[in-house]
């Protein structure tokens, strides 16, 4: 068994970004918040697959050559090696759940040359 209170964890960027409630041993689980205009740099994973489920708000997720707009109650699965970039292009904060599996201590590869398509 594993138990954690979200209030005991911090967002990576103070009031936004991922807030990991669990990292390993088999998967990661995070609450993610992006304020209007914030983004997360393009990257991919060699082994881990990533899922996002929107709790509140609207977010644009760019996966390879596609732009997907997600709203409350919507889910996206991103397979290993799919480059993805996340941006809140809207006027309200976004809150979503992120899971990654199988757990790898290091498996985020930056994709600085990625250009999001509209």
TrEMBL record:
Q: Which residues form the Cupin type-2 domain?
A: 31-98
Provide the protein name: Cupin domain-containing protein
**SUPFAM superfamilies from the UniProt entry:** RmlC-like cupins
Organism superkingdom? Bacteria
């Amino acid at each position: 068994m594993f138990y954690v209170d979200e209030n005991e964890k911090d967002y990576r960027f103070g009031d936004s970004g991922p807030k990991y409630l669990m990292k390993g041993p088999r998967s990661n689980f995070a609450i993610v918040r992006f304020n209007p205009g914030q983004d997360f740099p393009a990257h991919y994973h060699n082994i881990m697959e990533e899922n996002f489920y929107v709790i509140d708000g609207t977010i644009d997720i760019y996966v390879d050559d596609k732009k997907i707009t997600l709203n409350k109650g919507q889910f996206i699965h991103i397979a290993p090696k799919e480059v993805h970039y996340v941006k809140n292009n809207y006027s309200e904060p976004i809150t979503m759940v992120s899971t990654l599996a199988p757990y790898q201590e290091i498996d985020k590869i930056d994709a600085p040359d990625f250009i999001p398509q509209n």
